[in-house]
Amino acid sequence: MPEQLTATVCIAGGGPAGTVAGLILASAGVDVVVLEKHADFLRDFRGDTVHPSTLNLLDQLGLGDEVKAIDHTELSVLDAVIDGIRVHAVDFTSLPAPHRYVTLMPQWDLLTLLVDEARKQPTFRLVLEANVNSVIQENGRAVGVDATTPDGPLRVNAALTVAADGRDSAVRDSLGLVPSDYGVPIDALWFRVPRPTKTMRDTLANLRDGSALVTIPRPGYFQCGLLIRKGTFPEFQKAGIQAFRDKIASTAPRLAEVTDEIGSFDDVKLLSVQINRLHEWSVPGAMCIGDAAHAMSPAFGVGINYAIQDAVALANKLVPVLRQQGVDAAAIDAVSSAVQRRRALPTALMQRMQRVAHRLIDSATSRVVIHNPPTPRERFVIAVLLPRIRPILARIVGYGYGFRPERIARGILKLPR
Predict the structure, then answer these.
(1) CATH architecture of residue range(s) 3-181+274-399
(2) How many CB atoms are closer than 10 A to CB 318?
(3) Tens-place pLDDT, residues 112-147
């Protein structure tokens, strides 16, 4: 017989969506179990970018000082170097205080902080190395999940099952939900290099000679992503690791002295870039949030933030219903539908922006974006037009995600912060 747990809410996935949902629900007094298939949170492919609205949410949870204590980088301006010309693309200093910047921090540190805080709540349980196999169905309704752990099979019975287990969601697949895919022409090759001996200004994007390289500053090193045309990774492997190093050095010349630290293609991970979303996020007794509901591309670094927005929307809708009506099935299903209605439009709008960005990046690999020196028209765009749209870009990318920011509703948290 499998071990059995019972909870009001079972969340599959201990990423940003699942962890934040679990923390807020447990802080509101809801009995919640979070199942994470890995033994820890240490994975380099996870996003680093924490936007101002998410920082505001962490302040609401009373975690502002703890977040600041994590080794991190704060960027008030997002720069791109395009064929040798530095462009200040997004300026967050126009945003409302206190967070006029984006924070770059290893996601595993943030998740560990959130879990440590959640564990202070008696109604929170995290089960690591719990691989969800299937959703339990009774009379056409999801009533929990079956999982496998190192100690044997585990069954979690729950009034609501939440799929927060990423873009390859096992729970979503078990529910028979299939996302619509919106083709993305690029993939990313993910690797790290030490910081060069000569100080290198923080630059998120480097475009040169038809190549695009993202350089995320982390303490002591850069986490990098070379954008490539989808499906062309085998061509890079065939050309050899030295050709790959040379491409990195030509795209971001300041990194030339450290590219030898890329020992082989074992140090390079292929990140398949996807944009997709479900038309229906829920079935009776279960719903999807985060990447399980809508895979975001790395463009604008919004993935972690949109996942957390979903989690907040879920808690805001679910907690009052549980307090007023208990685990009434119809009321819980109405919550799932309400969350989708609130989050579907901003998700679709941001994904549309990402698709436009990808088309621009794709076209930039086949033509000159900015001449060096710039033409009169390019100088006009950089000096006159770009400063006017920076505040708009800052709002869209950093603070309100442009469309529908979430805050934890008054009265949701059981204990005032």
Answers:
(1) 3-Layer(bba) Sandwich (3.50)
(2) 28
(3) 999 999 999 999 999 999 999 999 999 999 999 999
Q: Where are the domains of the chain?
A: 3-181+274-399, 186-271
Contact 120, 66 (CB under 8 A): no
**DSSP string across 25-52:** HHHTT--EEEEESSSS---TTS--EE-H
Report the alpha-carbon distance of residue 138 to residue 144 in Å, rounded: 10
- Strand 124-128 versus strand 131-138 pairing type: unpaired
Give φ, ψ of 121 to 5 degrees: -90, 130
Torsion, Cα of 352, 163, 191, 269 (10° steps): -100
Tokens of 151: 């100690």
Tens of pLDDT, residue by residue over 85-107, are 888 888 888 888 888 888 888 88
Least confident of 25-34, 97-106, 237-246: 97-106
